[in-house]
């Protein structure tokens, strides 16, 4: 399948997914029209995701501004050659410095091509990323979804997606509790090969569900 690279490909995937699963169509009808939310692919795109992890938006933006002021092009080779003190001065933690260094070496020296990962299966693309020290499943999946536009990625470890699935499935879900990551991956099999679009719908549904007290939630067909 083509990557979700623009509004047209997103609309095409959305139409296919809604025709395939009436529940997705119900969520969209309830207002969960998914935005594109696409970022540039490549080293800088993944580096920005790593930088922002477990930080407030304001803190992440401040660190990113200092980092890109020091390295305007932010190429893998720049970070591979950078002194750790330079990176620490930007506000990066020791763990994130190690991860960015490992990623930079993988790209600059080991041949990891970040902007072509959408051409691989979801499983193979994720495997290529988590092989880099410090990159976990959530980081890999968020990069693949929002930077490469991979059409079949759903970050099942994301708590908002888990809660959205609970709300959407309603009384059909076990004890009406939030599914675990493993359980959500099983549920998401029904949305192959459009899991990237399903993830966007669930995030959109989460936002509107949390913003409307007592709203009528969709029930599976």
Q: Output the helix-strand order.
A: HHHHHHHHHHHH
- Beta-strand percentage? under 5%
| Tally of discrete structural domains | 2
Rg, Å, rounded: 19 Å
Describe the structure in your own words.
- The chain has 221 residues and is mainly alpha-helical.
- The protein has two domains: 89 residues, Endonuclease Iii, domain 2 (Orthogonal Bundle), CATH 1.10.1670; 104 residues, Orthogonal Bundle (Endonuclease III, domain 1).
- Helices cover 58% and strands 0% of the residues.
- α10 packs across α12.
Set down the secondary structure blueprint.
Blueprint: H1 7-20, H2 22-29, H3 43-52, H4 57-70, H5 76-81, H6 84-89, H7 94-108, H8 122-130, H9 137-146, H10 159-169, H11 181-188, H12 195-211
Can you give keywords for this protein?
221 residues; mainly alpha; Endonuclease Iii, domain 2; Endonuclease III, domain 1; 2 domains; disordered C terminus; DNA-3-methyladenine glycosylase activity; HhH-GPD_domain; Alkylbase_DNA_Glycosylase/TA; alkylated DNA binding; DNA-7-methylguanine glycosylase activity
């Amino acid at each position: 399948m083509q990557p979700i690279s623009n509004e047209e490909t997103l609309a095409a995937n959305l139409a296919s997914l809604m025709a395939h699963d009436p529940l997705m169509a119900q969520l969209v009808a309830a207002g969960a029209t998914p935005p594109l939310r696409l970022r540039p692919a490549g080293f800088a795109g993944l580096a920005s995701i790593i930088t922002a992890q477990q930080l407030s938006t304001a803190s992440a933006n401040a660190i990113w501004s200092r980092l890109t002021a020091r390295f305007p092009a932010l190429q893998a080779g720049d970070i591979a050659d950078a002194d750790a003190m330079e990176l620490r001065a930007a506000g990066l933690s020791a763990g994130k410095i190690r991860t960015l260094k490992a990623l930079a070496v993988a790209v600059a020296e080991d041949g990891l091509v970040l902007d072509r990962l959408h051409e691989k299966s979801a499983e193979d693309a994720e495997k290529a990323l988590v092989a880099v020290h410090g990159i976990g499943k959530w980081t890999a999946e968020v990069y693949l979804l929002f930077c490469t536009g991979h059409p079949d990625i759903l970050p099942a470890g994301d708590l908002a997606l888990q809660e959205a699935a609970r709300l959407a499935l309603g009384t059909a879900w076990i004890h009406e509790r939030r599914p675990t990551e493993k359980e959500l991956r099983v549920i998401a099999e029904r949305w192959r090969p459009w899991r990237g679009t399903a993830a966007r719908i669930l995030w959109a549904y989460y936002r509107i569900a949390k913003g409307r007290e007592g709203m009528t939630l969709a029930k599976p067909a």
